[in-house]
Write a structure and sequence with these properties.
Largest sheet: 2 strands, antiparallel
Structural class: mainly alpha
Number of helices: 4
Order of helices and strands: HHEEHH
Strand order of the largest sheet: 1-2
Oligomer: single chain
Shape: elongated
Number of strands: 2
Number of domains: 1
Strand content: 5-15%
Radius of gyration: 22 Å
Length: about 120
């Protein structure tokens, strides 16, 4: 009977340790996502063609429902035409390029964090 109680106590301790471990790394993952979104905004602004500067200044981000969901948009009506091009103008694809680069960065960061988690656990 005593062995069962000891096993139960160890299981509860393991559950508590696992929960604190999960919370610790969940915060780090959310931080990495926020850093990546900030870098995407920086890159898209850098790659946006500038005449008056309105298009470049109009890039925005907003955190939406859920812990890791962000929305990136531009409030200028002509942003879509610059991004995707027209019959007369080639596409710039500044947002698409920034998103691809951001995705690559985030995957690398998450892989590094996964390795760290394996070492810590």
């Amino acid at each position: 009977m005593a062995n069962v109680q000891i096993a139960w106590l160890n299981l509860e301790r393991f559950k508590t340790d696992t929960q604190s471990f999960t919370k610790k790394y969940e915060k780090q993952i959310l931080r990495l996502i926020k850093i990546t979104v900030d870098e995407i905004i920086r890159d898209v602004k850098r790659w946006t063609p500038v005449r008056s500067g309105r298009l470049e200044r109009s890039w925005q981000k907003r955190k939406i429902r859920g812990a890791a969901n962000y929305e990136i948009w531009n409030s200028q009506d002509y942003a879509t035409f610059v991004e995707n091009g027209t019959r007369y103008r080639r596409p710039i694809r500044m947002l698409q390029k920034a998103m691809i680069k951001g995705e690559i960065r985030l995957k690398k960061r998450l892989q590094d964090l996964a390795k760290k988690m394996e070492r810590d656990f």
